[in-house]
Backbone:
């Protein structure tokens, strides 16, 4: 079994928006209540670990008597709040995270609900959700018929848009495709990648423009008095730009990965440790913003869906310094040398040479040289 999530924009009616706001609020309320009770319990039994072990933790059902308005919202959403709190505590006890925090009004507006007895259905551009009934969505992609919906997470963004992420489960056994076409990709800061056929992904110009605009608007924000009317207005503007850019980038990465997964049976990339790399080279934000990590994730599943392969080769493989024609490895190659020249007479764009080497290395792995 494999999982896949599909995201859609939601268009709730006024009444549905009200109920959604209420649900976000109730989920937060229940989460905080349970956290508060747990903290009290820890305090009470802090010198008596044995008794603590035998305490039962609060459940949302308990609060429904005291706060009857909790019954107006999806009870599965409240049950998930309980699960989330449990997870937060597990992470805390295993040392993976700090002590769970209370959620304030600024926390992410979101809740998750599960499929139980056909309570969630998709039909004709609408999705049926517990308590909300049929809610309109933008069906920009189809969920294959053999996918079974497991849960849905509804989120409201800072700019007031609604999204739903539908998690599905499906039997996954595509026939392995015989590898006939292979491409190597060399990571590129400025364009995303250069491939072994000499093509560049070319990050769209509008994205670079938007990055500049965002930086400008952010500077404006930093000059405004925190909490003032103008500051709030500017903050919304920045949040909108952020959202727009993130969406544009995701679209671009989806398109690029789709193109490659359609055209080739096998894609070879270097296994880069982006975090380490950006720190080491002081690229700062750039490398993360470039979206390489998201891109390779998309590529991986788009290839896998068709029984195709993504090969990651060792990041220490000297892809740049090796001559893709004769195999000689240069002792050194400075970053400023944009053209690769070898004693054997071979001359090529530096990135294309690297991409060809990456492709060859991948083919060695596949043993199809
Ligand atoms: Zn050579």
Residues:
């Amino acid at each position: 079994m494999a999982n896949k999530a599909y995201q859609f924009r939601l268009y709730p009616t006024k009444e549905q928006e009200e109920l959604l706001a209420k649900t976000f609020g109730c989920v937060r309320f229940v989460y905080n209540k349970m956290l508060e009770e747990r903290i009290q319990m820890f305090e009470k039994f802090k010198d008596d670990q044995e008794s603590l072990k035998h305490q039962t933790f609060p459940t949302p059902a308990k609060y429904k008597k005291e706060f009857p308005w909790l019954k107006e919202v999806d009870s599965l959403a409240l049950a998930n709040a309980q699960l989330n709190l449990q997870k937060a505590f597990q992470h805390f006890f295993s040392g993976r995270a700090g002590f769970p925090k209370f959620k304030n009004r600024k926390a992410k507006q979101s809740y998750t609900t599960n499929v139980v007895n056909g309570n969630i259905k998709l039909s004709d551009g609408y999705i049926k959700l517990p308590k909300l009934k049929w809610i309109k969505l933008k069906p920009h992609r189809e969920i294959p018929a053999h996918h079974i919906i497991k849960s849905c997470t509804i989120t409201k963004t800072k700019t007031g848009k609604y999204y739903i992420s539908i998690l599905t489960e499906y039997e996954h056994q595509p026939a392995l495709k015989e590898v006939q076409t292979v491409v190597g990709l060399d990571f590129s800061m400025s364009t995303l990648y250069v491939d072994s056929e000499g093509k560049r992904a070319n990050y769209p110009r509008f994205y670079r423009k938007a990055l500049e605009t965002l930086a400008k608007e952010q500077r404006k924000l930093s000059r405004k008095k925190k909490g003032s009317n103008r500051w709030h207005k500017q903050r919304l503007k920045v949040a909108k730009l952020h959202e727009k850019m993130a969406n544009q980038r995701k679209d671009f990465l989806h398109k690029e990965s789709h193109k490659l997964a359609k055209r080739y049976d096998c894609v070879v990339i270097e296994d880069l440790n982006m975090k380490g790399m950006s720190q080491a080279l002081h690229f700062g934000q750039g490398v993360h913003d470039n979206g390489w990590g998201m891109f390779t994730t998309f590529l991986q599943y788009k290839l896998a869906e068709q029984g195709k392969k993504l090969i990651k080769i060792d990041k220490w493989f000297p892809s740049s310094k090796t001559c893709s024609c004769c195999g000689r490895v240069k002792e050194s190659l400075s970053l400023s040398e944009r053209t690769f020249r070898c004693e054997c007479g071979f001359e090529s764009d530096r990135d294309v040479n690297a991409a060809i080497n990456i492709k060859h290395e991948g083919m060695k792995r596949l043993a199809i040289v």
Remarks:
- Residues 282-287 have pLDDT under 50 and may be disordered.
- The first strand starts at residue 2 and ends at 11.
- Residues 182-203+259-366 form one domain.
